[in-house]
Amino acid sequence: AATDTVWDAVYSCWGAIWFTDPERLLPLIAPRLAPGGVLVFAHAEALEGYYGPQGIYAYGLRGPRRLEVRWAYTPDTWADLLKHHGFTDIDTRLEAPDPQNVRTLLVRARSVPGGY
């Protein structure tokens, strides 16, 4: 993180938070958030029983073989990871318009007042 820029909010919608090791990314985000700043992210729910880093093909079953890794955790595990990296006021939810559909994990957390 070669910047001194501080942000009021950082968000990831099916993006960086899902595809980057949180043990590497969260320590980079925390000091870049203003005191009380908010981190918000969303991605698909984890498959029950399959947690942590998971390899996937970037283009599904079509196109060239391009491996990507995503990190999938339960809402409670995400809350623990965020607490460990200095976040507070953590809210995690699994939402879907239809209970039969794949749910989206929605997470909001604040940086520690006074900085990380």
Automatic annotation (TrEMBL):
<protein>
    <submittedName>
        <fullName>SAM-dependent methyltransferase</fullName>
    </submittedName>
</protein>
<keyword id="KW-0808">Transferase</keyword>
<dbReference type="GO" id="GO:0008168">
    <property type="term" value="F:methyltransferase activity"/>
</dbReference>
<dbReference type="GO" id="GO:0032259">
    <property type="term" value="P:methylation"/>
</dbReference>
<dbReference type="InterPro" id="IPR029063">
    <property type="entry name" value="SAM-dependent_MTases_sf"/>
</dbReference>
<keyword id="KW-0489">Methyltransferase</keyword>
